[in-house]
Amino acid sequence: MQDEPFGNGADLTAVAARYDRFMATPVIRGFLADGGEVFIATDRRPWKVILTLQAQGHRHFAEKYVQEALAKWPAHAALPAGLRLHNYGRLQTNKAIASLRRFDGMESLDRPRLLARIAATADRDRRARKFHLQVNLGCEPQKGGVAPQGLEALCALARGAYGLNIAGLMAIPPATTIPNLISDGCGGWPTGCIWLNVLWE
Predict the structure, then answer these.
(1) What angle do CA 126, 85, 175 make, to 5 degrees?
(2) Residue 154: what pLDDT?
């Protein structure tokens, strides 16, 4: 079986070039100028690819699979200054504690049980974290996320009952639609947003 273009057989020069092209696009330059943050998804990518992106100056990364991230990424104290690692994708409740030990932020909180588990463990770690609620804009069964009509109640629970630092929303709209900007249901979001990019697709 051949390596993927950016797998173990990656051409690191090509990795750097693709990254530079992406970051130079007008939409990304404008997004960053408005205070946004770009996270590059590096799940199923070898460490040498991550080091190449770090050498290009990138400091924001995201991993989908908790066990892979625990094995691949060093402990937080050993990471370069300013580097941030987020978790995205549907998070299993039984992996919440492991996630808190390794990730700076989680982008897919979507159900009360998970909020309760996060809240019960978050106080044990002094590092500040930002959490995002995942919204299933199209109510698609193959995707995680709270339905739009349940967002306000979930946000109230996260911020009020559990005191979590909810920084914003994470949503992947249906591929066939271009959604209008939706009301977040919580109010008072910070101006900074996250752009999660799978650089390899």
Answers:
(1) 130
(2) 94
The whole-angstrom separation of Cα 86 and Cα 46 is 17
Count of C-beta atoms within a 10 Å radius of residue 156: 12
Domain ranges of the chain: 12-197
> What's the rounded Cα separation, in Å, for the pair 109 and 132?
6
Contact 152, 90 (CB under 8 A): no
Q: What is the pLDDT of residues 5-51, one digit of tens each?
A: 445 556 899 999 999 999 998 888 888 887 778 889 899 888 899 99
Tell me which residues of the chain have a pLDDT lower than 50: 1-6, 126, 178-185, 187-192
Name the residue type at position 166.
I
- Domain 12-197 is in which class? alpha beta
Residue 110 pLDDT: 92
**Distance (Å, rounded) from C-alpha 118 to C-alpha 158?**
10
- Among 106, 153, 99, 104, smallest CA distance to 121 is for 99
pLDDT score at 196:
66
- Output the pTM of the full model: 0.76
Phi, psi of 153 (to 5 degrees): -70, -40
